[in-house]
Amino acid sequence: MRKKQLGKLGEDLALAYLLRRGFRFIDRSFSCSFGEIDLIMKDGRTLVFVEVKTRLSGRYGSPEEAVPRRKLRSIIKTSQVFKKISKNLPKLERIDVVSVDAPHPEQLSVIRHIKNVTG
DSSP secondary structure string, 24-58? Predict the structure, then answer.
């Protein structure tokens, strides 16, 4: 399975996972010159920018370990662009990471949802 296909499957699973937990969908794969945000959701009165990481194995660490500070800075800048062009968004916001384990491509499972990774 190609990396892009695996990422799409992981995002689909993360979206379903978040919807089951009461999040509301706003946008997906929003991109600009600063980067891309996988999922944009609403959790109650909070706007949530979600980075989804999917891995086939733990050989190079857990999926959430693949979100360095550089990526978080990119998400922050991209979220600022999204907020400028969108209307009626909640004032509160956070960045979450959903990590998806895929020991076999047909056995995707969410292994961790980390809220507010930037504190």
Answer: EEEEEEEEETTEEEEEEEEETTEEEEEEEEEES-S
> pTM value?
0.89
Nearest CA to 108 among 7, 37, 3, 4? 7
Structure tokens at 98: 């959903």
33-60 residue pLDDT tens = 999 999 999 999 999 999 998 877 666 6
Cα–Cα distance between 19 and 98 in angstroms, integer?
13
Of all helices (H) and strands (E), which one includes residue 90? none
Q: Using CA atoms, how far apart are residues 107 and 56, in angstroms rounded to an integer?
A: 10
